[in-house]
Each structure stands twice: as structure tokens, then as C-alpha cells.
Amino acid sequence: QVQLVESGGGLVQAGGSLRLSCAASGRTFSSYAMGWFRQAPGKEREFVAAISRSGDRTYYADSVKGRFTISRDNAKNTVYLQMLSLKPEDTAVYYCAATTSRIRLVVITLYNDWGQGTQVTVSS
Length: 124
Description:
Blueprint: E1 2-7, E2 10-13, E3 18-26, E4 33-39, E5 46-51, E6 58-60, E7 68-73, E8 78-83, E9 92-99, E10 113-114, E11 118-123
């Protein structure tokens, strides 16, 4: 099991940027692929981005491709989500999550450990 704590959310105007961080503790961070998910009010939680254990593979939802970048620093036990050109529809609670799976990293049900979430609000 790994404990996850997100930070970096906030209120930003459309077109602005934010960088989310997710600090992990517990078992070996590099043993986990990591993902970012988000949940808007009244909607289901959805996949945003994922990164493999070593960071050599990344995956993105079509809605954020070209605007968001996921990265990780295994020495710091941290995964990041750089968000550029934010839109009002990006408003949601953003969660990071960990999985021991090596494949199908876009599948939400493969993630066992979750952070508490951080709110991102984009005003128009």
C-alpha cells in the first residue's frame, strides 16, 4: 500500500496554468505506475493521464492531450501534472492514484491506492 497526498490545486482563469503534485509514502514508489483522474460535480471520475513505473511511457485522455503533461521523479517519490491552457471544463477535483499493473494504465479499476484529491477551478 502507498499513501498519496495531492497539492497544487486552486482557482485560475481560463488560459492559465497549474502544476499538481502528488507525494507518495510507504512502499517503493518506483514499483507503481501512477495516474491522474478527475471528477466534476455530478459526473463520474475519469482518466486524465498516466505514467509507467520508470516514466518511459505516458498516456493521456484526448481532452487534455497537448495541454497536460504527466511526469515523475522517483528520487522524490512524486508525480506531477503540468496543466496548460486550462479551460472551464477542466474544473474538477483531481486525484492521483497508484497501481501495480504494468498495462492498461487508463483503466480506473486497476488503481488501488488513491489520494484525497485537490480542487481545480477554472473561471471563464
